[in-house]
């Protein structure tokens, strides 16, 4: 289904300076694309809420030093519950609220978007379908060639090692379509990167 996504251009432009951390200028657009694919399948989801939430969900990494991001946010024991994970969520809410207010979105939309962003990495279960779509879109990019190439460095792993790890993470996706897309994308990635051989 084709939607006019240009309505989000002012939000992209206002948020762009905050995308200079942690390769978010790659991660966020790719995740936004995955969100649109999921929204094509789950038509009862709110397209504005999901699109805005995925666009703004990680801009809070901008407020955190890159060494802290990598060493505390992606490595070590229980890194998914590290202080920097909670901090990037709260900073994404703060900055996202500023961006949405500046681009004319109403308080109801802002509250719904921020409810998803706050806890998108650290909350054990989603609140609703919109939340599930954003959480899946946030993860799906990892299964792509670009995602494996970037995240394997963050995790201090080889591409093959990270792809093998991803094979055990399909069930962490919240939606049936998210799981299907992840499996399909990882197969393409493994073939493209010749991971059967190296």
Structure description:
The chain has 198 residues and is mainly α. It has helices spanning 9-15, 24-41, 47-56, 66-73, 83-102, 107-117, 129-140, 145-154, 159-167, 176-192. The chain has a single domain (9-192), classed as Hypothetical protein af1432 (Orthogonal Bundle). The protein is 62% helix and 0% strand. Helix 2 (24-41) crosses helix 7 (129-140). The longest helix is centred in the middle third of the chain and has 20 residues, at 83-102. The protein is globular, with a radius of gyration of 16 Å. The model has no long low-confidence stretch (mean pLDDT 91).
The CATH architecture assignment turns out to be: Orthogonal Bundle
Largest sheet: none
| Rg calc | 16 Å
Task: Determine the number of helices (DSSP H or I, runs of at least 4 residues).
Answer: 10
| Helix-strand category | mainly alpha
State the end-to-end distance.
39 Å
- H/E topology pattern: HHHHHHHHHH
CATH fold-level assignment? Hypothetical protein af1432
What's the total number of strands?
0
Q: Mean of residue pLDDT?
A: 91
**Outline:** globular
Beta-strand portion reads under 5%
Question: Which percent bin holds the helix content?
Answer: 55-70%
- CATH top level is Mainly Alpha
Number of domains: 1
Corresponding CATH superfamily: Hypothetical protein af1432
Low-confidence runs (pLDDT<50, min 5 residues)? none
